[in-house]
Amino acid sequence: MTNWLGSDDVWPTPLSFVSPAMAQTVQVMTQVGWLEVQTLRGDVTIQASAPRAARVGDRLTKTGDTLTTGPSSATLLEIDNRIGTIQVAENSRLQVRKLGTLRNGGWVTTLDLVRGQARLRVDKRILPKNSIFEVHSPAGVAGVRGTEFGVMVNSQNRMVVGTEGGLVEASAQGTTVTLKPELGSALFPQEPPLPPLPLDRELKLELEEVDYRNKLLWVSGRIYPLNTIFANGLELAVDKSGRFEQLMPLPSEGRLALKVANSVGDGQGYLLMGLDRQVE
After folding, report:
1. How many whole angstroms separate alpha carbon 144 and alpha carbon 84?
2. pLDDT in tens, 120-161
3. Which of 45, 119, 182, 263 sits CB 3.0–4.6 Å from 68 for a disulfide?
């Protein structure tokens, strides 16, 4: 089992945060703050005034500033005033929604995870009371009331949130579920969050069918409902039960590399070989 940019740091127990519902009532904010690039691996692009290759020390500071990672790429961001970090995995796009301070002294950090995966750690001993920390996607909002959590957003805008420490609130369509440590939830567009489920660390894969149809490869199977599956780097659509099915070009050299991942950065690989020998 692998972890895509993890560390063994221990972060403290949470205090109190504003929930997503409470955050909607806050109006007065001064725009300050930043996310700073600490480490880079592979193809990482930053877009502020214009897109360019990211460098260590670059900062995202205003609404709309965007960071994008390519295949086999990752980056670690530090949140302003050293309140925490954001680990951004490959094939991800993270955008600043709001960075600032409130009239009551609270700090605001709200981000859009357009696609991909991010793992966040927050040291709430440093944060003032009534601070807001949220990650948005087209499917819903994850509001931090804890210290460590992960978010995944796929091309169908399915959002999966998993908590490793403290509490996180997942909200959509007027419904909020609270996720305690080692629990997660999936959010689909225009639907309320699914009930909490335990995080899966085994990352098992159940293949139902591998077949050939008109010189294309048909793959179907099932994974844990909160997990995501990739085939040769292509993310496969997964329904609420964890079932997937995909018709794809035959892989080069007859190999199909499958990877099952959860929202907090764990991944397990599987390799199918000799597929080219079975083609008529």
Report:
1. 12
2. 998 877 777 788 889 999 999 998 765 789 999 998 899 999
3. 45
What CATH homologous superfamily does 206-278 map to? Immunoglobulins (2.60.40.10)
Spatial distance between the Cα atoms of 90 and 42, rounded to a whole number of angstroms:
9
What is the CATH topology of the domain spanning 2-198?
Jelly Rolls (2.60.120)
Main-chain dihedrals φ then ψ at residue 28, nearest 5 degrees: -90, 120
User: Tell me: the pLDDT tens digits for 49-75?
Assistant: 889 999 999 999 999 999 999 999 999
Poorest-pLDDT segment among 15-29, 72-86, 158-172 = 15-29
Mention every residue, 6+ apart, whose C-beta is less than 8 A from residue 228: 152, 154, 160, 235, 238, 260, 261, 262, 263
Give the Cα separation of 29 and 148 in Å (integer): 25
